Amino acid sequence: MTFDLVLRSRRAVLPAGEAPAAVGVRAGRIAAIGGYDDFLPAAQTVDLADDALLPGLVDTHVHINEPGRTEWEGFATATASAAAGGVTTLIDMPLNSLPPTVDAAALDVKRAAASGHCAVDTGFWGGAVPGNLGELAALHEAGAFGFKCFLSDSGVPEFPPLDQAGLLAAAREIARLGSVLLVHAEDPGALTAAPDSPRYRDFLASRPARAEVDAVARVIEAAEKTGARVHILHLSAAGAADLIADAKARGTAVTAETCPHFLVLDADEVPSGATEFKCCPPIRDAGNRDRLWAALADGTIDCVVSDHSPATEDLKRTGSFATAWGGISSLQLGLSLMWTEARRRGYGLAEVTAWMSTAPARLAGLDTTAGKGSIAVGNAADLVRFVPGETVTVDPLRLAHRNPVTPYAGRELTGRVRSTWLAGALPGAGRLLSREPARHLSPTPESGRS
User: What's the predicted TM-score (pTM) here?
Assistant: First the structure.
């Protein structure tokens, strides 16, 4: 039988590691994997030679902000940026759009805004906020992949934090639903108001590592009291990793993520007034960064996602770390950022792929329901051609996200995404994804994508 597309690479990243391979695609799925020189008849064959073939990245932490704050970011620009960076699947956070995704009606509004405007496959998290406990079941049934909450001020008034009683109540309900609770874990009792200052160190002092450590302890306690599956978002403070490792050893259902900015940047290198570096929790020092890498390598931290959280230039570039919007725009750059630093530290493409594709897909259940996260027969043919040795310099004006503000401007990176395939075709017709029960994936489907 003829394949629609065959991709050959001497560096295909398969579940067992890098190997020369030919990948045959039919009807949007991977229908065969053979040796690099195997004969696979196809309508189109692309020989990548020594360029790497990776599974499409899965980014489960993206703030698209549409509708309501579309001038910050929108579905068209965010998903174009994702495709350019090798991200073929993303899940949108329930804030900072208006309305926030805290009930099924708001999810309908979000889907209507996204429909026809997504270059890659896109799903949606719901939100857990004070007063919406009774809405969580309907959101779950409507297809939300899970629920995000804050323990401290989110930065927008329409998405307030949960107190300890609210956290426990949400965790119990989410455990009953069989879903997952995602937590922005900073304890408000350890935070102080940042002074109106251009000095990054002044801002960093207002959000000490203790705030994360104390909050992670609260989340683990809630998971153990309720049986809920919990996920720690954007872990910045490496000291909290010990708590997560101990909880995992006890059998607690806890996972954690970190972000490229915490693994690449160093607090001591942030220039005065460079508020494009502001994010919450904050970028910490080089020693903390090394410990995050160690926790990632030993499996304590499960995955790496962008936390792409853009804003307009006037909100981001205020010169004061007290007033600037906190968020890093890096959706298009994550793979190159991670590869640059991972290669320097002795890690390979297989590890980077596991952190940025396989593990995030597993977090959202997309590995079983939609065949995301790995190059395997039956999986979606979401694939990336990556040139690991090519050097690129970050030019903000060449990034596809809406506002050209990034802390990586002028930074030299190693590795470039050359091509992206979504279900065996060029990105542009992304689907809107919903949580669904796991089902068997046929290795040779007749048509369509799961």
Answer: 0.96
